[in-house]
Design goal:
Layout (H helix, E strand, L loop, with lengths): L8 E4 L7 H14 L3 E8 L2 H6 L1 H25 L3 E8 L2 H11 L4 E5 L14 H9 L3 E5 L10 E4 L6 H14 L4 E7 L5 H14 L5 E7 L2 H12 L3 E5 L13 H7 L5 E4 L2
Parallel strand pairs: 1-2, 1-4, 2-3, 4-5, 6-7, 6-9, 7-8, 9-10
Antiparallel strand pairs: 5-10
Helix pairs in contact: 4-5, 6-7, 8-9
């Protein structure tokens, strides 16, 4: 990361109502950096089906073209230059990850949930979870009503070797946007409180920026993180990918519960 936090941002969108927050935040980040915004538009494609019914494939292409035109119009109003790439495949998450690899992206900005249905009942959509699982770069999940962070950054770190790197990344972002940073550590019980406090102090010291404070809680990780978000008014939460797991169908991780129960963007750092 540079003084612009991220230099190669990739917005993954299908320009639906669920993508509105991701588009809004990605545009704002591009405005701040002064760089063009790369966009990947994943289009579901089945060659055998399209060969049998070409009119449906044509309709899908036309609908995608209309959405991309709308996105370009919105970008022009915002003063953002777009570099749009349409990728066709049978799995949207694979096309998004492939585009990120080809463009050497260091941040994917993506919606948090998608269309109604079975997977929408999960707190984080299946496609989004698979992007986070497969991508080698950072991923920012954005609820559809979210805005660019303006109040405070919260980073949740645990007893892991990568905690200092996650804290540093969060501190860099907070410093760039001129925001205070809270470094949160949660001990499962009082037996681990002393070690948690010691590690929290270390992570606070390692996080760059002047307005950095530590917060140590005892209890359930999900409940305590959500409570501190509400208490501090944080509008960006930073976590490490090693604490975000892609569970089998119907399963969830702590981080999915955290991200899914808050109306603020959640940044997953690739460490």
């Amino acid at each position: 990361m540079t003084n612009q936090a991220f230099t190669r941002i990739l917005l993954a969108t299908e320009h639906t109502e669920f993508d509105a927050g991701a588009e809004r935040v990605a545009f704002a980040m591009a405005q701040k950096s002064g760089r063009p915004l790369r966009v990947v538009f994943p289009l579901l494609s089945n060659p055998e089906y399209e060969a049998e019914m070409p009119e449906f494939a044509l309709h899908a292409e036309q609908a995608a073209a209309e959405k991309i035109a709308q996105l370009r119009d919105r970008a022009q109003v915002s003063g953002v230059q777009l570099d749009v790439h349409v990728r066709r495949g049978s799995h949207r998450h694979q096309e998004i990850v492939a585009e990120a690899v080809e463009s050497q992206t260091d941040l994917i900005v993506i919606r948090r949930r998608g269309k109604p249905g079975f997977f929408a009942r999960m707190l984080v959509g299946d496609m989004v979870s698979r992007v986070i699982h497969d991508a080698s770069c950072n991923v920012l999940m954005v609820p559809r009503k979210a805005e660019l962070w303006r109040r405070q950054v919260l980073v949740a770190v645990g007893d892991t070797p990568s905690a200092p790197d996650i804290s540093k990344a969060a501190g860099t972002i907070a410093g760039i946007y001129g925001l205070p940073l809270t470094v949160l550590s949660v001990a499962a019980d009082t037996d681990g409180l002393a070690r948690t406090q010691s590690l929290n102090t270390l992570n606070v010291a390692l996080a760059p920026g002047a307005a950095v404070r530590g917060e140590v809680r005892v209890g359930n990780l999900v409940e305590q993180t959500i409570a501190v978000v509400k208490q501090t008014g944080a509008d960006l939460v930073v976590i490490g990918r090693q604490r975000y797991h892609l569970f089998p169908l119907g399963g969830r991780s702590n981080m999915q519960d955290i991200a899914g129960n808050m109306d603020v963007p959640t940044l997953v750092i690739a460490v």
